[in-house]
Structure formats: C-alpha cells, structure tokens
Amino acid sequence: MFQFPISNLQFPIMSCIFCEIAARRAPADIVFQDEHVTAFMDKHPRAPTHILIIPNSHIESVDAIADDAAAWQAAQCLRAAREIARARGLSGYRLITNTGADAGQAVFHLHFHLLAGRKMGWPLG
Ligand code: 5GP
Ligand code: ZN
C-alpha cells in the first residue's frame, strides 16, 4: 500500500500564507532570502522596523522543534536576524517568537519578529 511520506513534506497540507510568501507565490516586501530563510516586512508593523524571519520549510512553532534538523532551521533564522540587523545598522533589536495561541501566535509557521527603531519597554505586559 502506498504510504504518503509525511516526514518529507516540503509544504503543509493546509495552505500556509508564510509558505506561500517564502515560495514567492504570495506578495510580501522581502528584505532577505537565502535557501534556508526568508525575511519580510510585517504587514502591521509594531515598530519602525518590524521584520518577520521564517524558515523556508514549514515548522509550526518552537514547540514543533523536535529534532536537530528543525533546530538547525530555526538557528538559520537567528543567523539571518544578525545579518539583517548589521546590514541595517540597527543599534539594538528585539526578537520575539510567540508560541501557541495563548501566547498570541496567529500564524502557525515559525517566525521571529525582529523589532527595532524605538525604545522597547521591559518587562512585557
Ligand atoms: P503572530 O501573532 O503569529 O506572532 O504574528 C503574526 C504576524 O504576521 C503579525 O504581526 C501579522 O501582522 C503578520 N502577518 C500575518 N499575515 C501576514 C501577511 O500575509 N503578510 C505579512 N507581511 N505579514 C503578515
Ligand atoms: Zn508554512
């Protein structure tokens, strides 16, 4: 019997807007892209610089990082954050990844918000 190779899926069965953006099938203001990572401007910016950094392959959230391959993909997002920040001359920046609906995650494709350009409050509310 044919078995669908779920572990090799490059794209999710449900359509995912961030997969579509990474594949350039949906519009976005892409500021950085390589074979592992795509970064684009958030459509509802919460700071003068608000960039979303995503792995090109679909990982739902930090909670879905269960093996080294997924962890490596996530690490590529951090590397990209550093490169983007340096290229833009950001003096400081905040990386946020909401994990799960209770934490405010609305798009279930792992993403890091890179926020900069204004004074950030701490602690978060
Ligand atoms: P979350 O709440 O999941 O951590 O963040 C999702 C973010 O994605 C939000 O800041 C929202 O503005 C942004 N977003 C959702 N859909 C789109 C889209 O189609 N294009 C862009 N550029 N940003 C999006
Ligand atoms: Zn996706």
Q: What's the shape?
A: globular
Radius of gyration: 15 Å
Cross-sheet strand order for the largest sheet: 1-2-3-5-4
Task: Output the CATH class name of the domain at 31-116.
Answer: Alpha Beta
Bound ligands, named by name, code or SMILES: guanosine-5'-monophosphate, zinc ion
Number of helices: 2
Largest sheet: 5 strands, antiparallel
- The tally of beta strands, per DSSP, is 5
Report the portion of residues in β strands: 15-25%
Average residue pLDDT: 92
Straight-line distance between termini: 52 Å
Spell the H/E element sequence.
Answer: HEEEHEE
User: Which regions contain 5 or more consecutive residues with pLDDT less than 50?
Assistant: 1-9
> What class would the helix/strand composition place it in?
alpha+beta
The CATH topology assignment of the domain at 31-116 is HIT family, subunit A
Helix fraction, binned, reads 10-25%
CATH superfamily of the domain at 31-116: HIT-like
CATH architecture of the domain at 31-116: 2-Layer Sandwich
In short:
The protein is α+β, with helices and mostly antiparallel strands and 125 residues long. Helix content is 22%, strand content 19%.
Polypeptide structure, described:
The protein is an alpha+beta fold. The chain has a domain at 31-116: HIT-like (HIT family, subunit A), CATH 3.30.428. The protein is built from two helices and five strands, in the order αβββαββ. A five-stranded antiparallel sheet has the order 1-2-3-5-4. It starts with 16 loop residues before the first helix and ends in a 9-residue tail after the last strand. The structure holds guanosine-5'-monophosphate and zinc ion. The site of guanosine-5'-monophosphate (5GP) has 13 residues, from strand 2. Zinc ion binds at residues 12, 16, 18-19, 58, 109.
